[in-house]
Amino acid sequence: MSQVGADFFASHRQLLEEAVAATKTRGYYSAFPESPSPRVYGESAAADGANAFEAWLGTDFPLSTPGAAGVVATEKSPFGKPVGVRYPRVTTDGVPALVEAAAAGMRTWRDAGIEARVGVGLEILKRLHARVFEIANSVQHTSGQAFVMAFQAGGAHALDRALESVAYAYAEMTRVPATAIWQKPGRDAPIRMEKTFTVVPRGVALVVGCNTFPTWNSWPGLFASLVTGNPVIVKPHPGAVLPLAITVQVCQEVLAEAGFDTNLVTLAAEDPVDEVAAVLAVRPEVKLIDFTGSNAFGEWLEDNARQAIVYTEKAGVNAVVIDSTDSFKGMCFNLAFSLSLYTGQMCTAPQNLYLPAGGIETDDGHKSVEDVIAGLEAAFGKLVGDDARAVELLGGVVNDGVLERLTQVGSAGTVVIASREVTHPAFPEAVVRTPAVAVLDIADSSTYENECFGPVAYLIKAGSTAESVETFRRTAIERGAMTASVYSTREDVIASMRSAALDAGVALSENLTGQVFVNQSAAFSDFHGTGANPASNATFTDGAYVASRFRFIQSRRHI
Amino acid sequence: MSQVGADFFASHRQLLEEAVAATKTRGYYSAFPESPSPRVYGESAAADGANAFEAWLGTDFPLSTPGAAGVVATEKSPFGKPVGVRYPRVTTDGVPALVEAAAAGMRTWRDAGIEARVGVGLEILKRLHARVFEIANSVQHTSGQAFVMAFQAGGAHALDRALESVAYAYAEMTRVPATAIWQKPGRDAPIRMEKTFTVVPRGVALVVGCNTFPTWNSWPGLFASLVTGNPVIVKPHPGAVLPLAITVQVCQEVLAEAGFDTNLVTLAAEDPVDEVAAVLAVRPEVKLIDFTGSNAFGEWLEDNARQAIVYTEKAGVNAVVIDSTDSFKGMCFNLAFSLSLYTGQMCTAPQNLYLPAGGIETDDGHKSVEDVIAGLEAAFGKLVGDDARAVELLGGVVNDGVLERLTQVGSAGTVVIASREVTHPAFPEAVVRTPAVAVLDIADSSTYENECFGPVAYLIKAGSTAESVETFRRTAIERGAMTASVYSTREDVIASMRSAALDAGVALSENLTGQVFVNQSAAFSDFHGTGANPASNATFTDGAYVASRFRFIQSRRHI
Fold it and tell me: What is the pLDDT of residues A214-263, one digit of tens each?
């Protein structure tokens, strides 16, 4: 049906096979180098990408969206850089035309078959990779991530996650052969039939992006839905449109080359007053929704978009249970890093640090709660004490809500490590803050059981480690959690924390004292979210994430 | 954790591997012989099974269900045989205790691991197979299926479907290794981590059985939920309890031997006035529901059991598009058989037979609509003209609703083949009827767009085959369909019907003129239901059917 699609598939076949193999072993695998070094990407890549990004600023982004009327410019860089890119504006009035246009190419896309669709998906990834510096800049100046993080989390790692999603979708679609011969022994002669199995899409897919991780969190759903045959409407967060506008541009470019309707992937930029996502989400044609963002809208989608399968990643209360450690300095460094990274604006950042009120045993002797605070403070000093170094770890504050929560931390508990304003050497307008740590008692559950998104951590004094574990278990079951972490030199404590993590359905990291952080999940190896507690109803990426995005339809005949 | 479970797994490992391989090729595979012949099952098997069945009649079935109070006896054989088995009666008052007891053993069951759970599941299948004649008798005298059909659809084929479901669940759970080593290249030395992935259940599962296929339709969901770690409450249709009571008895026997809580599988028999299913279905602990039955309750579950994933098989309007044939006699025989089999009381039985008003071309020359009616009538004459032969194909009428619809067929259209009362030579009280065929015009959509469950077929005169195809497409999209069938000697007609079937998400059978019937789906090869139209939201059995019944929870640590 599409020779170009078949050619794309052939040229990326080896990559696909490696990726599928990696999903099965879940060891280390990466197809997109995470280092932005010139030795990897070439001398001019960084400057070329920055220039390409700069060229968009203040212009009309060259995309046309069916049903759109006029333009909208909604982005504001946390680094204070004027963005001002204008996108076609979709309002609720334009939704019917947009959905109709999205669905128009669906049958041809379906009939093109698995390999053509997967080939197109992989070619899109290749071309996004070719623009990875441009994307990194666009992620940096919309999300507030520091450049290297934007390059990695917003570029290379996001591409790996997208590839993982394509690999799972391909494996799922090819789990059943395109044609099977069924031969049943009969009294005289066997009964023989030929059976054909065709992958059919569910309908129009909607991807609702978030402000903090516009690519990393949107691409898995986008690619999983697209390669399984569904047209995708991308509704970016108004604060982070450009990374997804570039994404849609690349999708349309490749779709056009392969002879498909470009409206199979569209951008639905909006003025936030229009609340277009809520209107799109309940359209009868929309059968798949991927959402990352607030609990409020995530739960609204789960409750109201009944005609669709809804994959949500919302928020939870992430916990660290500190019992003991054989590397006190390593633990303090690791925790301080996790709290500082991107100013704690990660759904995976720890919030509740439970420890026994009587202190903990360490390789450096017994440490009281005050000693632990001092240890964390020393680690913060090294990591974010110097402004020029600090900004590369912290990035910028994404919105006023984060700032507000930071100023209110004092009313919640005793602030033992205060937040500090940091001056960005390159962007004087940037809003940069270090984390705050407050001490709470285990009785202060009304505070620590709620998510405080941003650079706020609670050091919670429990009667014992057993109480810490139990409080983690209960809070995660009730409020959800994306991550959990434990520090202990005792096997029985690790075992009880593992059991609690299974009960609560939370991914657990044990004794991280080095260069792996609880906030980070590695594509092809770690799952992100579990679908087993209120923080998310799906996982990046497993069979359940892809299997319901299409159906097998069979036909059979005697031969 | 469970040595017995491990032993069961080891002893059934080869069967499992064959079954998993069969799901991938989707060719012919069966592990449970479908012939009730003494040459296969032994000389005494049939009599022993019948005696075992007879021994239950009028007794208290020896199961104890937590929360139950008193007993209930609700079954009525369509063959007129007194059943009168009494089961523990669950009322809405008993639901909390039942759910609590079901959940009590869940953690131990989870911690036993994949192999122990799958081992237990396979051992249950083996022991159900050892009681297949007893089960066949119990299916016959509750559903009204004739004995051979009850043996096959209710016994051997149901076991194959259950095995298929276990095979898919096992493949899905082992798609991720239990332990993985992650080694990321580092500047000085690699970073190494060990990661553990554990399958955790979703919660309590509820299986709601139907009257017509108590085992075939319930076992796939029961086994998929159970082996993935979820306790299962089995709520049988009040008219068909015994087959599922025997099932639960065998489940509990094997669970006990392997050291697990027997309440991991429980029977919730009820008096229909109590409407226990609706109360169970919205309990917060219930996370998975498998339902086969009416559109009304299926849609109610989808709308109200929001805390659970709901797998429904409801009803649709199945269609046959008759364009032309190279075997007029074969076609008429095949259609008459499909309409007669179990008195059309199958969700897969055809209802709407579209043909051009001007007639069709056949190997026996042009045939007018009247000629087609005559052809069908001749086929019915051979199949169900003789009472003694007829009862073995027709079985009994399952309930008064079916009889009522049969009497009303004359008001819907012109009856061209009338239903006939058949006397059962062995069961004089049996209610047995042959199918009725009425002729309608394509304009009579208000009649043929609704499901008329039972032995009623409409021969619908269309302007052309193109109109037939288009009407099938529209009706299936709007009303759903479990099956579709086409007869044509023209490739373009077949192609257009295939395209319509893909659009409507319906499984298609082409030119069935021999011993394969559109109502039948073969385990491991044919999918049953598609999940792609209103008649069902799931398929027996594919990845999507099992993947969301559990979650992977990981933990990781440096090594």
Answer: 999 999 999 999 999 999 999 999 999 999 999 999 999 999 999 999 99
Handedness of CA A257, A261, A262, A266 (dihedral sign): negative
B509 contacts on A by Cβ (under 8 Å): 555-557
| Cβ neighbour number for residue B35 with a 10 Å cutoff | 12
> For an interface test with A, which of B555, B557, B558, B559 has the most A Cβ atoms less than 10 Å from its Cβ?
B555
B286, B155 Cβ separation under 8 angstroms: no
CB-based contacts of A244, cutoff 8 Å, min separation 6: A209, A214, A215, A218, A234, A236, A267
d(CA B116, CA A349): 36
> β-strand A87-88 against A484-487: which pairing, if any?
unpaired
Amino acid letter at B241? V
User: What pTM value is reported for the model?
Assistant: 0.97
Crossing angle of helices B465-479 and B491-504, rounded to 10°:
10
pLDDT of residue B1: 59
Closest listed residue to residue A298, CA positions, set A282, A317, A311: A311
Nearest CA in chain A to B532: A551
Provide the Cα torsion B151, B154, B160, B166; round to 10°: -150
CA distance B289 to B234: 10
The DSSP bridge pattern shows strands A232-235 and A204-208 to be parallel
> How long, in residues, is chain A?
559
- DSSP H or E stretch at residue B196: strand B191-201
First to last CA, chain B: 26
Nearest Cβ partner for B510 among A24, A501, A555: A555
- CA A492, A497, A499, A500 dihedral sign is positive
pLDDT in tens, B90-105: 999 999 999 999 999 9
Q: Which domains does chain B have, with CATH numbers?
A: 3-313+541-558 (3.40.605.10), 319-510 (3.40.309.10)
As a whole number of angstroms, the distance between CA B420 and CA A292 comes to 61
d(CA B203, CA B201): 6
CA distance B335 to B309: 36
Got the DSSP string for A179-220?
EEEEEE--SSS-EEEEEEEEEEE-SEEEEE--SS-TTTTTHH
CA distance A511 to chain B (A): 7
What is the distance between the alpha carbons of residues A534 and A520, in angstroms, rounded to a whole number? Answer: 20
